[in-house]
């Protein structure tokens, strides 16, 4: 009996996270995509790992034009995680102020927008770094 209880306790969290991942991937795939220009950027935080801490460039993007898209509004939610090995290169690109950074969000009415892709000059950031 103890073996079965232990098996259920181990499998239940795994099943939960699999279902949650499946639900989020469905939300992203069936959503409207909105590209949002960024300003402000901090690639490193020793406690939270490496990420781009971004702010929406409100001079180039009007949130009211997309009423069904609930973009992140708290500072802690505005992070796009990146691999540590790429943080220095992305930091240099941003500080040179020669590239336009933007994020593609997956938006569905009634749900919080999910950051899907980071763009540099309109290209996926992986592709943009390969050419440098």
Can you describe this structure?
This protein is α+β, with helices and mostly antiparallel strands and 132 residues long. Helices cover 36% and strands 27% of the residues. It has 3 helices and 8 strands; from the N terminus they run αβββββαβββα. Strands 4-1-6-7-8 form a 5-stranded antiparallel sheet. A 3-stranded antiparallel sheet has the order 2-3-5, with no helix packed on it.
How would you concisely characterize the structure shown here?
The protein has helices spanning 2-29, 84-96, 125-130; strands spanning 32-39, 44-45, 49-53, 55-56, 79-81, 101-107, 114-120, 123-124. The longest helix has 28 residues, at 2-29. The chain starts with a helix and ends with a helix.
CA-based gyration radius:
18 Å
Let me know the average pLDDT: 81
Number of helices: 3
Elements, N to C (H/E): HEEEEEHEEEH
Unreliable runs? none
Key attributes of the depicted protein:
alpha+beta, single chain, 3 helices, three-stranded antiparallel β-sheet
What layout of secondary structure does this protein have?
Elements: H1 2-29, E1 32-39, E2 44-45, E3 49-53, E4 55-56, E5 79-81, H2 84-96, E6 101-107, E7 114-120, E8 123-124, H3 125-130
Antiparallel strand pairs: 1-4, 1-6, 2-3, 3-5, 6-7, 7-8
């Amino acid at each position: 009996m103890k073996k079965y209880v232990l098996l259920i306790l181990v499998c239940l969290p795994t099943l939960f996270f699999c279902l949650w991942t499946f639900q989020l991937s469905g939300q992203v795939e069936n959503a409207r995509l909105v590209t949002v220009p960024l300003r402000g950027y901090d690639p490193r935080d020793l406690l939270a790992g490496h990420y781009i801490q971004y702010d929406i460039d409100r001079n180039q993007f009007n949130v009211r034009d997309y009423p069904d898209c609930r973009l992140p509004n708290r500072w802690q939610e505005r992070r796009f995680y990146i691999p540590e090995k790429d943080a220095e290169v992305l930091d240099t690109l941003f500080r040179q102020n020669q590239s336009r950074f933007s994020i593609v969000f997956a938006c569905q009415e009634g749900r919080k927008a999910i950051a899907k892709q980071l763009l540099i000059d309109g290209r996926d950031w992986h592709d943009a770094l390969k050419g440098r």
